[in-house]
Design brief:
two-stranded antiparallel sheet, 243 residues, 38% helix, 24% strand, Rossmann fold, 7-stranded mixed β-sheet, 10 helices, alpha/beta, 9 strands
Length: 243
């Protein structure tokens, strides 16, 4: 969560996360006057749609990447949005919110017990958590290629099962829990594949790789993939904080 991102590249790329995030947002019931935490707002693409659903409410846009948060601020301005640079592993310094939305973020948080406890602590009793992240089996092909190259893609990520997530949410004080895994393979244009891998999939590995070796590593991964398809598996999460 504390690593920074290339927010400009992220916005240029044909990422599927925005479409998935908008679908997740549709699952979050809102009256329009709530105060909602976007836990992992990225560059603010889904946050913009969330704000549109809150004409009398507001959004707290949280991200651990300064460049992502700056990009979100450029996109959204300060109308009904406040910004928080913060690591979800740490207690969240805000007043309780009515709901929490999160898309494509939780798998970057290495301790989900701490994560869900921190979220529960800022969610009002009865408030809803609606989220999606990478789940068990996510990007398995890329992971296998990297293993052959002596790298571990999961060293800074968590790809849990639905059952593991349900148990963690229960321990954190959530009820009415629904978790399920959905395959969501994404074909990336061949011309974008290396930048996509470097920006979205293996940035953590590249951060720990000498600069002169980064581009050759990304090229090797791209060449060894049988086709430019990232075999995503999404974990859908819905729960309420116990009254």
């Amino acid at each position: 969560m504390t690593r920074d991102w290339d927010a400009a590249a992220y916005d240029r790329l044909p990422i599927p996360m925005t479409g998935w995030g908008l679908a997740v947002l549709e699952r979050l019931p809102l009256d329009g006057d709530e105060r909602v935490l976007d836990a992992g707002c990225g560059t603010g693409q889904v946050t913009a749609a969330l704000r549109d659903r809150l004409p009398d409410g507001g959004v707290i846009a949280l991200d651990a990447s300064a460049s992502m948060l700056d990009r979100a601020r450029d996109r959204l301005g300060d109308d009904r949005v406040t910004y928080l640079l913060h690591d979800l592993l740490e207690p969240i310094p805000i007043e309780p919110v009515d709901a929490i939305l999160s898309t494509a973020t939780f798998h970057w948080v290495p301790d989900h017990d701490r994560l869900f406890t921190n979220l529960a602590n800022v969610l009002r009793p009865g408030g809803r958590l609606t989220a999606q992240c990478g789940g068990a089996g996510n990007i398995a092909t890329v992971a296998a290629v990297l293993r052959d190259l002596g790298q571990d893609i999961a060293w800074d990520k968590v790809f849990p099962t639905a059952e593991e997530t349900t148990s963690r949410l229960e321990r954190a004080g959530f009820i009415d829990i629904s978790c399920d895994l959905v395959p969501a393979p994404a074909r990336i244009p061949a011309d974008d594949l290396e930048l996509y891998l470097a920006t979205v999939c293996i940035g953590g590995i590249l951060d720990d790789t000498p600069e002169e070796d980064r581009a050759p590593l990304v090229s090797q991964v791209a060449r060894r993939m049988s086709e430019p398809v990232i075999d995503y598996v999404r974990l859908n999460i819905s729960a309420r904080r116990a009254p």
